[in-house]
Amino acid sequence: MLSRRRLLVLGGLTGGVALAPFVQSGDTRNAQPQHVHGPMHGAVHDHAGRVPAVRSGPAVTPFSVRMPVPATRIPSVQTADTDIYRMSVQPATAQILPGLSTPVLTYGGAFCGPTIRARRNRRTLITFDNKLGHETNVHLHGGRVAAAHDGYPTDVIAPGSGRAYLYPNAQPGATLWYHDHAHHLEAENVYRGLHGFYLIDDEDERRLGLPSGGYDVPIMLRDALFDDAGNLVFDPADPYNRPTLLANGKPQPYFEVAARKYRLRLLNGSTHRVFELTLDGAQMTQIGTDAGLLPAPVPVDRLVLSSGERADIVVDFAQAPLGGHVTLNDVAGAVLRFDVVRKAADRSRVPAQLRPLSPMPTAVQDRKLVLSLDPVNIRALINDRVFDPARVDMQVRRGTTEIWEVTNSDTNVGGSGFGVPHNFHTHLSHFLLLSRDGKPPLPGEGGWKDTVLIQPGETVRLQVDIGSHLGRYVYHCHMLEHSALGMMGQMEIVN
Question: Alpha-carbon distance 464 to 449, whole Å?
Answer without folding.
Answer: 9
